[in-house]
Structure formats: structure tokens, C-alpha cells
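Annex B. Sample input.
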Amino acid sequence: MNFLMNLIWFVLGGFISFISWIVIGILWFLTIVGIPIGMQCFKFAVMAAEEAVLGVIFCMTIVGIPFGL
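Annex B, continued. Sample output.
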């Protein structure tokens, strides 16, 4: 059930969040002062996509199904 909910979340809102954090991080990198903030934005982008992607990857193997679910 968690896998299904993570997948639905990623499709309906997580992908938009992921793309938004990437764009904001790139904008922060335009200034020298904003580079540390831009790095944190990229970390947030990874966190936004991590759960759904890891769930899909784990569920692709027989051994990984318990970890993905």
C-alpha cells in the first residue's frame, strides 16, 4: 500500500516538487553567495523523488519486494 501511495504522490505532486527544487537550485547557483543554498535545494530535490523511485526499484526484484513495500 505504501508503494502505491508513494507512486501516486510522485505522479500527482512529487515530480512537480522535484522539478521545482531543481530550477530553484539552478537559480541560486547564479550568484556566488547563493551556492550553499543551491546545494541544499538539490538535496531537497533528491528527497522529493527518493521515496517513490526507491520503492519502484526495490519492487522490481523478488528479494526487494518486502523492502519496497
